[in-house]
Amino acid sequence: MDTQTAVTTRGGGFLLAEGDPAAVFTPERLTDEHRMAARSMAEFIEREVLPQTAALENKDWELTRRLLRQLGELGFLGAEVPEAYGGLELDKLTSLAVTDALGPASSFAVSVGAHVGIGMLPIVFFGTDAQKARYLPQMARGELIGAYALTEPTAGSDAMSIRTTATRTPDGSAYVLNGTKQFITNAAFADLFITFAKVDGEHHTAFIVERATPGLTIGAEEHKMGIKGSSTASLIFENARVPAENLLGEIGQGFKIAMNILNMGRFKLAAGCLGAAKAGFRDAVAYAAERRQFGRPLTAFGLIKQKLAQMAVRLYATESMIYRTGGLVEMALGGGHGDSKAVMGALEEYAVECSINKVFASEVLDFVVDEMVQILGGYGFIEEYSAARAYRDARINRLFEGTSEINRMVITGMLLRRAQRGQLPLIQAARAAADEMLNPTAAGDGQFTGPLAAERQQVAMAKKAALFAAGVALQKHAAGIEEQQEILAWLADMVAEIFAMESAVLRAAQSTTGEETLPGLLARAYIQEALPRLEGLARQVLAASADGENLRTVLAGLRRLLRYTPLNTVTLQRTIADRAVEAGRYPL
Question: CA torsion sign, 44 to 46 to 51 to 57?
């Protein structure tokens, strides 16, 4: 493996070397088996779930359980469970494709995700053989439903500050739990709760708690803004006696379990947001094509075309990022899907990309459903139409699996830690970017040839701009950078924009021999949207890290790094919108 390949295959390494279109996994590379699994899920949602939306929204938990059992019979609940315990042990790309297809199910998708992800995977990854044999086969069949109990009234993002306690009985046969868990998905009907407590008030530890445990009470259902068809309630532990054999992992290992499960949650949540956004886009296109004003369909108007194009462009970037990350995780696993340590290691390696995808996809979903309401006009505000529910349901995703703010801190924090440990040569790259900035002729023109050469060049210069801005910030704030959350968030957004830009361009370069094909148009349009945003973020970082003549110098350098000629986006966006209208949906 050459040095560049070694860098680009590390988590966060995309910042430091040029990506190879041939090496990037894209949705076009999904196998027939991947597509068949996704199609089966999509058909199930269309046939069995969407017609029951009203009943699900009215909290018919028996219906939810029945649908979950049906998914279990089809094998979907056991997709990531080892074959030895009744699962299918499928690859992570299948997981993404199926979650993408599940996205339109909204509330029901939340119920499924809580069960197969945070409710079941802690047992898959950390359970003993006896625990796996006892619980996983029934969970894979949908006979037992799981939930995850970490959040407390005083501990949300700060998971280490939980107050629920676990005290071992004198004879060592059980642990007695006391405390309250809040906002627990599936609480109304779950059979098992992966519950976190502090042994002796100190050691953060996980337990498998059965619903029938004496001393466990399920609180009232929360009245939520959205995802009304999913259950959310509190758990109250009052001297709840949990058998010692239900200790999950080791004492003091709870935080590690929680973080590993969050990595998996972010990996998959992005795909669910993508699927939901595609569904919203489809409904927006259908309405705009049918609705007529001033004697013409809405799709004939430029500002509606602009909205549809911007939605499609962001969906393309999101989809490209998610499946690129899936390919990286698969490569790291090397087929070892049944090896829990390998899975956790792969997700840890690409935790930066998982956090990027989670933040980006959840915000794209919000953008899509907001524009969907706008396209429907007054009807978008009426509950009879899908836009109102989609708008309400989307908002939770910026809170799930760590808020967007926490994930932005994860992105920059992990990159900085890897740089400090010598795992990624980020500091050296930042210095090189600063040296290039000082060279008035620096631009690297002509580095790329072939389709989308200009866009690939712009991505390369964007990377240098981000590294340069990071270097200036580090020089100014040094070890105190961790307290500069605003700067870290701007840098995280720059990193995310670069991952989105490069993923879209590499995918298009892989799939096209001409820039006027739809992938080429989508990639070019995204670059045109992203560059001004990225420049604005860099200017904010620099303004917070330099002043006076030094600030003028670094801003001049930034302009050299990010110089570009704007394209006629009106023509570009109208072409993309027309293709989407012709397809009647997201056009890829």
Answer: positive
